Amino acid sequence: MVKMEKSERLKQIPPYLFAEINRKIAAAKRACVDVISLGIGDPDLPTPQPVVEALNRAANDPRNHRYPDYEGMPSFREAVSKWYKRRHNVRLDPDKEVLTLIGSKEGSLHLSLALINPGDAALVPEPAYTTYMTSTILAGGIPYRMALKEENDFLPRLSEVPEDVAARAKIIYVNYPNNPTAAVAAKGFYRELVDFAKDNDVIVCSDNPYSEIGFDGYRPLSFLEVSGAKDVGIELNSLSKPYSMTGWRIAMAVGNPEIIRAMALVKSNVDSGVFNAVQHAGIAALNLPDSVIDANVKVYQQRRDVLCNALEQVGLKVKKPKASLYLWVKVPEGYSSESFAAEVLDKAGVVITPGSAYGGAGQGFFRVSLTVPDARLNEAVERIKKSVKI
Ligand SMILES: Cc1ncc(COP(=O)(O)O)c(C=O)c1O
């Protein structure tokens, strides 16, 4: 047996925080508990039928069976460009400013590999989707955590980033509508971000997979809607959430052409692109009438209302989010994020995500997702009400 030693990079990646929860879920299921999972943000609504049909047609065409273009099919990139114009009034050159990705998750790593040298810093929010931190580490960089605090509406205070850290930073990650806090960003914040990027020579990565999930008529922004954004950064977006396509693995990086080119160079050496048939399906999704997204958003909005009301009845204070697929709620007095999540799973058979899974700054909160039907949401809250002391 050869000696296997993990790379120094991999040794720095913290243990998977959901592992213990997954272990408990598996044990509860073995004990025949009907577990309700509000833990993951994976849409339960099906992928629209025209998209499935487009895949079927394309999969039957042998021309699609060969290696795809690394940077994505021109027709997919064209569809992305038209979609951004239609949905966000952002102009993109499909040849230079759009790159097809296997998921926005993948985009973060390839961006880091394209830009980060050992010892460089990346500014990452906390709490956050953990990929920003881990992809920085995998590229040999050092994550600097910007705390997202409730009193600042879960926006980072850019003026509080120490000068020496800003000087060493290559990338700043932002994500609005935010996972896990459900916070949103207004144009003023993005303008400040463009100025910060210019002043400090930092590249902005706006990770925006929830850009279409806004409630009560609110339309989340694209970072690229503010002037000067394309000079300083890119946006990662995805078909995963608006079109219920998480399993299909298709997304896009858009924005600054030099950054897009650098990412494409990394990708051409790491993967061989997205199956052309999936890109044809992606085109079908992007060309669907906006009413398809509106209908899905209506379902999530209704669930948001159901869940907010139910949690309030249980005695938990909830701020109704304007966007995203999540509620971010304070744990009751006397609990930590972990102890409350464990109690809710043990006593009620309901999975919630402890805020601390998104970094230390998430302590004191839990996240629930809106990707289960109303009846299950109500049942989850009923069970919590009956069995957990709040
Ligand atoms: C903030 C954020 N970015 C990226 C992703 C991953 O998206 P994709 O399926 O496009 O990789 C998620 C998924 O939950 C997310 O919450």
Keywords:
single chain, alpha/beta, Aspartate Aminotransferase, domain 1, Aspartate Aminotransferase, domain 2, 2 domains, seven-stranded mixed β-sheet, 14 helices, 12 strands, binds pyridoxal-5'-phosphate
What's this entry about, in short?
The chain has 390 residues and is α/β, with parallel strands linked by helices. The chain has helices at residues 8-11, 19-30, 49-59, 74-88, 104-115, 131-138, 163-168, 187-200, 229-232, 257-270, 276-286, 290-314, 337-348, 374-387; strands at residues 36-37, 98-101, 121-126, 142-147, 169-174, 203-207, 233-238, 251-255, 326-330, 350-351, 353-354, 365-369.
Widest beta sheet: strand line-up: 2-8-7-6-5-3-4
Q: How does the helix and strand content classify structurally?
A: alpha/beta
Mean pLDDT: 95
Distance between the termini: 53 Å
Quaternary status of these chains?
single chain
Uncertain regions spanning at least 5 consecutive residues? none
**Morphology:** globular
